[in-house]
Amino acid sequence: MRRRSMIGTSLAVVAAMGLAGCGGGGEDSGASTTVRVTLANHVWTENIKAALPEFEKQSGLKVEVTQLGEDQLSDQYNVKLNAGSSDLDVMMYRPLQEGKLFARNKYLADLSDKVKSAADWDFADFQAGPVEATTYEGKPMGVPIITEQEVLYYRKDLLAKAGLTAPPKTLDELKTATAAVQASTPGVAGFVARTGKSPAVTQFSSFLYSFGGDFVDTSGKAAVNSAAAKQAYAFYGGLIKDHGPANVSTDMSWPEAMAIFTQGKAAFYTEANSLYKNATDPAKSKVSETVGFAPFPAGPAGSKPYNIPSWALGINANSENQTNAWKFVEWATGKQQTLAQQKSGVPGARTSVWADPAGTATYPKDLAEAIAASTQNGVGHDRPLVVKVAEAREIVGQPIVDAITGKDAAAAADTANAAFQKFLDDEAR
Q1: Is 45:67 a contact under the CB 8 Å cutoff?
Q2: Among 154, 146, 189, 151, CA closest to 43
Q3: Within its chain, how far is the Cα of 337 from the centroid?
Q4: Strands 135-136 and 139-140, sheet pairing
Q5: Domains 4-148+308-377 and 149-306+382-428 share a fold
Q6: How do residues 354-397 score in pLDDT, each as one tens digit?
Q7: Which residue of 53, 206, 273, 289 pairs with 150 in a disulfide if CB–CB is 3.0 to 4.6 A?
Q8: Is residue 119 pLDDT above 90, yes or no?
Q9: pTM metric for this prediction
Q10: pLDDT tens digit string along 39-72?
Q11: What is the predicted pLDDT for the residue at 205?
Q12: Could you give the CA distance from residue 421 to residue 429 in angstroms, rounded to a whole number?
């Protein structure tokens, strides 16, 4: 998965930012002046740790940080939350990976009253897509802290050589442009993207939404064989089959697809914006000087890329220190900290930081514009919103592989839909 590249090592590091103290810290029964915060290995975490002395001085609280790699984080949550432990106050979690499980099992505190009462903090400033992903049954269960959107990476020089004056604005134009590049530059693929059954699901999702489909319909039934979904599978798979790299494999995740693009072997590439430095860093990319970015091309339903929170902060429902836990969350996700994170290269979920020139100054201008466009109509999920995410991705990703290899995409979608509906029925029991 792409996020694993951002997480780093899974070595546990416990950073005690102050001595535990008891009493008087909040209105909760058993409240403490020490807030216990569990965070993932991430640039966001390092930035927050560096700013903690400011929060501690301002609040009079102490923050004890437990920092873990992605796998260890999951293991700890599995053990402690299942046991009803109260020694976790604030939790950094992945809304699209475990958010539904945590909410359904009542591991996360309902933040409705807290977000409503924090007027200066301004919950309305958060983008709709990320808020959607951190909401369960109409209740905010977390606050998004890091976002991702899908954008179009492209080679400016290859477009110019093909006589194209601007990047494609629609999927139809993208298809035409890939053929034009191939005709003008033999040996270079027109398009590359993820091809692996599970890894491709997240990037395929923007194609699905832009064709007017989704993984489930409004009643919660499997919808991966709708007319729109079948068109999306055929288009995505056909683009790679007909205009992708020669002898393309069907097990590529982002590192393999990115490598093809950065080695100068493809003209267009749809991918998460969070990975852009792999394409613009001269140490990693042979085409760093010629890379451009554009909004995700529009399909029949418009341009509807995913706009998701890769990470969020939640409060343990069993914490006895929820008032002080919220003080930390409110500070860590406030406008000042979000802007500071954004300036360091961590894309935030607040609308205001993307409107602030200081918030986009470190991004390529065309990428910042593409991201801003993506947040307007972005969809808040890039995979099925289920408990067993990995299993669901395997099911809905199979038609992608079948389409790439030239099989009947519509038939594959019908087969996948039946399997996905059974999966949904089983999970609902």
Answers
A1: yes
A2: 146
A3: 20
A4: antiparallel
A5: yes
A6: 999 999 998 999 999 999 999 888 999 999 999 999 999 999 99
A7: 206
A8: no
A9: 0.88
A10: 999 999 999 999 999 999 999 999 999 999 988 9
A11: 98
A12: 13
154 phi and psi, to 5 degrees?
-155, 165
Residue keyed to tokens 């998701």? 308
> Which two three-digit tokens encode residue 44?
């966001």
Q: CA 400, CA 196: separation in Å to the nearest integer?
A: 8
pLDDT at residue 377, rounded to an integer = 87
The Cβ-side half-sphere exposure at 141, using a 13 Å CA radius, reads 25
- Between helix 409-428 and helix 389-404 the angle, nearest 10°, is 170
Tell me the residue ranges of DSSP E strands in 225-265.
none
Q: Across the strands, what pairs with 308?
A: 148
- Mention the CATH class of domain 149-306+382-428: alpha beta
CATH no., domain 4-148+308-377: 3.40.190.10
Tokens encoding 320: 């006895």
Res 13 pLDDT > 60: no
Residue 218 Cα to chain centre, angstroms: 22
**Among 283, 284, 359, 287, which residue's Cα sits nearest to residue 125?**
359
Q: Residue with structure tokens 């110019």? A: 160
Q: Could you tell me how far CA 424 lies from the centroid of its own chain?
A: 23
Q: Is 92 helix (H, G, I), strand (E, B) or coil?
A: strand
pLDDT band at 130 (very low <50, low <70, confident <90, very high): very high
Joined together, the tokens standing for residue 406 give 């030239």
Residues 404, 181, 193, 373, CA torsion sign: negative
Q: Say whether pLDDT at 127 is over 60.
A: yes
How confident is the model at residue 366, as a pLDDT? Answer: 97
Q: What b/e readout covers 354-382, taking b as 16+ CB neighbours within 10 angstroms?
A: bebeebbeebbebbbbbbebbbebbbbbb
Q: How confident is the prediction for the chain on average, in pLDDT?
A: 92
d(CA 3, CA 94): 10
Alpha carbon 216 to chain centroid, angstroms: 19
Q: How far is CA 323 from CA 26, 66, 221, 317, 320, in A?
A: 5, 20, 39, 12, 9
pLDDT (tens digit, 9 = 90+) per residue, 134-186?
999 999 999 999 999 999 999 999 999 999 999 999 999 999 999 999 999 99
* Strand partners for 64: 16, 36
